[in-house]
Amino acid sequence: MGNKKTQAASRREFLRNISNGSVLAVSGLAYYSLSSCKQPSEEKTTLLTTDGKLVKVANSEIEEMEHLHQGASPEEARKGIPGKKFVMVVDLAKCKNAKKCIEACDKHHNLTPDRPYIKVLEMQDNEKSAPYWMPKKCFQCDNPPCVKVCPVGATYKRTDGIVLVDNERCIGCRFCMAACPYSARVFNWGAPPEGQLDLPYSPETSLPSKIGTVAKCDFCPEMLRQNKLPHCVTSCPNGVIYFGDEIDDTVTNGEETVRLSTLLKEKAGYRYMEELGTKPRVYYLPPVDRLFPFEETTQENSES
Amino acid sequence: MTKYESLINDLAPRKFGKRGTIWTFILVVIIIIGLIAYIDQIRQGQVVTNMRDYALWGIYISNFVFFVATSFVGSATVAVLRLTNNSWRTPVVRIAEIISLASIVMAGFTIMIDMGRPDRLLNLFIYARLQSPITWDVIIIPTSIILSFLLLYFPLLPDLAILKKHHLKTKPTFSKWYGKLSLNWTGSKAQKAIQSKSIKIIAIMVIPVGILLQTIDAWLFSTTYRIGWDSTNMGAYFTSGAFVAGLGALITVVYIIRKVRGLEHYITDYHFDKLAQYLLVTCLAYVYFNINEYLIPIFNAPAEEEIHLNALVYGDYAGIFWFSQIVGLILPILILLFKKGRKPLPMFIVGIMVVLGSWWKRYIIVTPTLLHPFLPIEGVPESWHHYFPSMHEWLITGATLAMALLIITLFVRFLPVIPIQRTAEEKGLLNTDKKAET
Fold first, then answer.
1. Could you tell me if B56 lies within 8 Å of chain A, comparing CB atoms?
2. 0.95 exceeded by the pTM?
């Protein structure tokens, strides 16, 4: 009996030892992998945090992070970029419906082709005037009808003029879509397309998309934070889209930089449906002296 | 058996017959099928509906508007007829109160079905923004549910006490429950004073709250820059439409209950004639608002609105538009003008016409507008240019309608559909009964 007892006890001990050992081994491995190039000691490193504080962190706590072009967190994204008032000018005389802006936007926002943020619409003001192409995105209105009707503040206006959607707060009532006179908003009717789903969510990238919530053109704030232009501006082969800052009074299409006020004055810039009083931040230059003749969508001009 | 006892026997709730059981069974089956469809909608997302980025609201919303409209019948009959001293209302008020409560409860459910993220329902309270018309709805719908409930419950107290006594020997469990629900009603002077004062306050409150509910519902649409919605006419238009939808529903349900329960002595041709006149007046008022909404814009409609109106009158929606106008409004008016048309059976048919017309009218108000935006619909799949509800939407909507009918059915099963106490008082039966008792 006694013998059996000690046998059982020793077996338990053995098992315990094994498990302790394996825990040690695993943690040792982890420790080793983190501090592979440093002495295994209590050494500390001084680091600068994103909000400008200097902190000392034990080397064993430091983990390498993959660099991601992430937008700000949902709380941070509500504030906007200080000292900026973003504005866009679309020169209708230059657009030939190349659709490169749509492609770039779809790619960076992980969108399917049937639900783009940007649309290039075929417009004709009256029977006698020539038809023209009108690239249309969210107008980022200064008096936004969508923001007014949102019951939970999921869509909001920032100090830099951008209107964003917080997909972690949106309840999917679609009232903002009904309120938008420009049909700028789209809805995630089903599960979002695959790819880029493991990022931390940011309203500035609108990624990853979430089922049952509203989305729209966001002026690519994560690019603006890096002092880069939105994807639609840089991808346009014809320099149709100018982007800039109203306070600086400059806009650029990536090739030329011009005074916003001069451009609007000289080329008779206008805002679509000014009479609604929504005060869009997107201006259009009328389709006069066109660079290209108007052609209906064909395989060629959509690929060129 | 005294007259009073036979009155209680007539009006006390009764077990379902064969028809009643089959009816309830069918309703339950429809509800279960709808529930399965809804679970599937939650699993897959609203991609199972035929709503898309342009037709972003569909029958969930139009059905919601329909429920909100029919819930107005409580305010329309109980409160308005009370304030205007129309004593003929007695045998129909309880049914009106039941329809009102069932409709407003289902309106609350229906609006949640339309939400893309029902799991975030609490955000409506956590992050509530008072400037959003949806927040106004969040406030007014629960208020209406509570008021509709009290409007049904307070006048019921004496009847529940009567039923307690009535079922004492035959059905002790029922009797116990009726007793508990009657809140120890004895009919003492003090109790009667409190009750009549409470009912008076609720009946007065229910009118502004009812009008607000209809108007807020209209403001959901008229606060947008949308052709066909952007109209100052909307609040009054919706309120007058709610009178029509509510009375139509009331007449239909009253006829069926009267027939099934054999209440021809209590709900007579006289009552149908009165209800018919009331419906006629409200229909005429609704015609007035329809003229404002659809006819007057002929003179000054901007190009986009003309496209919208043409789609209603001649285009894709002409069938539904003319059905709701002719079957739901013009024909009922013509029938109701004649004395023969105001008899129970023709009234029943008119009631059904009005209810169907009202349901499709909401569809016509919600859907076509969304497919006529200012900017052309381009760069999306061809199917997004149109909208007709998907199977999921029909099944779920069918279940909400069945649920409303089931609530009404259950109330009819367990409550006296005609107020016993008041009918007895009006017939002068109560005093003789008391003498017999003492």
1. yes
2. no
